[in-house]
Amino acid sequence: MPVSEHVSSCPEFTTISQEFRDEYVIEKSRFITTLYPCSTEDEAQAFITRINKEFWDARHNCTAFALGPKQEQQRSSDNGEPSGTAGKPMLEVLKKTGITNIAVVVTRYFGGIKLGAGGLIRAYSHSVSEALKKAPKELHTTRMQLQTNVDYATFGTIERYLTDQQYTFTKEFSDTVTLTILLPQEDLEPLKKQLQDITSGAVDFEELGFSEVTIPITMDTAPS
Questions:
Q1: What NCBIfam families does the record point to (predicted)?
Q2: Which residues contact 108 (CB under 8 A, 6 or more apart)?
């Protein structure tokens, strides 16, 4: 089936795949960072309210969120810290990484030693940056679906190749193995040629069109 010339306009963006928490201690102050995936401001505000209730006894629960494929909606709060030392640096980290559809709360338990404005900026930025590095992330994008049937003799070689090239694919087993591969449009013809070479031409393809997909990100892409 020939593929349509029309490609879905689904914007590509990276977010986190689940709520995640990390802790950083400096000068006896605890900075507890909680990240939350969300797509609306109502969801972000409900998350912030929940964290405020959980850490009701903390001196500060500073917040930031970025929503939309291009981070169109942005907001931050210093929550009592000196102006510009918490929420804004947290939001700047989100903007730098490009990660979106995310809300973050950094909870601070004061340790008795003042950090100063510069120290606070560094502490809040570092807390969010480190949490984003460690959190599981996923790519939301559009991919071509290419389906092919291969025999069991060549399946292992093809599976290793697709895995090495970090393609996302599913497999169904019957008399042959049916592979459905998700790939960028620009990879379509090169991949078909490579699979033809691997199988000495004994492979057919069916292009199933484009689909909006979520792909786990296994390697850290957030800057340090």
A1: IMPACT_YIGZ
A2: 29, 30, 31, 32, 58, 59, 60, 61, 62, 81, 86
Q: Helix axis angle, 152-164 relative to 188-198, nearest 10°?
A: 140
> Do 147 and 125 belong together in one domain?
no
Residue 214 tokens read as 């979520």
Q: Residue 122: which residues within 8 A CB-CB, separation 6 or more?
A: none
Number of domains, the chain: 2
Backbone angles phi, psi at 140, to 5 degrees: -100, 120
150: containing domain: 138-217
pLDDT single digits (tens) 57-99: 999 999 999 999 999 999 999 999 999 999 999 999 999 999 9
Q: What's CA 161's distance to the chain center, in Å?
A: 25
With contact defined as beta carbons under 8 Å apart, do 42 and 154 qualify? no
- CA 143 and chain centroid, separation: 16
The answer to whether residue 9 is domain-embedded is no
The C-alpha atoms of residue 155 and residue 150 are separated, in whole angstroms, by: 6
pTM of the entire predicted model: 0.77
Identify the CATH number of the domain in which residue 72 sits. Answer: 3.30.230.30
Instruction: Judge if 125 and 180 occupy the same domain.
Output: no
